[in-house]
Amino acid sequence: MHLYEHQIATNASQQMTKVTEMVREDIERSGVREGIAVIFSPHTTAGFTINENADPDVVHDMLCSFEKVFPAEQFFYQHAEGNSHAHMKTTVVGPSQTLIIHDGEIVFGIWQDLYFCEFDGPRNRTFYVKIIEG
User: Fold this and answer.
1) What global pTM score does this model have?
2) PANTHER family per the record (predicted)?
3) Residue 40 sits in which domain range?
């Protein structure tokens, strides 16, 4: 098993950043040809999703929709830090994704990429990639 740690600096309150290449490099370094990669965020206001990579408007639309469903300003939020919306968005997206590795490559659909989702930035974040042979 192989564990890799990554640092990522986000520059907006909400953003989705492609991190697929970082994971591909980890898979290559590990030498694993068949297995899984688990990508995990140890943050309660940032997570991961797999989504379309061809049209940047998809990311824009997703972030706008998340904000519509979980707006930053709500009169009923009680969390003192003022980032309840970010916790809810992260709960919906999830803190991790699991990817299949076959022949040393991530098994993705043609339009898919892995995105780190920041919902409470800008911040310096850490995430982990655990590669398991099998």
Assistant:
1) 0.94
2) UNCHARACTERIZED PROTEIN YJBQ-RELATED, UPF0047 PROTEIN C4A8.02C
3) 10-127
- Total domains in the fold of the chain: 1
pLDDT tens by residue, 61-112 = 999 999 999 988 877 888 877 788 898 999 999 999 999 999 999 999 999 9
Length of the chain: 134
CATH number, domain containing residue 102? 2.60.120.460
* Section 17-46 average pLDDT: 98
> Is 90 exceeded by the pLDDT of residue 130?
yes
Sign of the Cα torsion 5, 25, 16, 51 reads negative
**Around 45, how many Cα atoms within 13 Å sit in the side-chain half-sphere?**
19
Angle (CA) 128-4-132 rounded to 5° is 90
- What angle is formed at CA 52 by the lines to CA 49 and CA 56, rounded to 5 degrees? 105
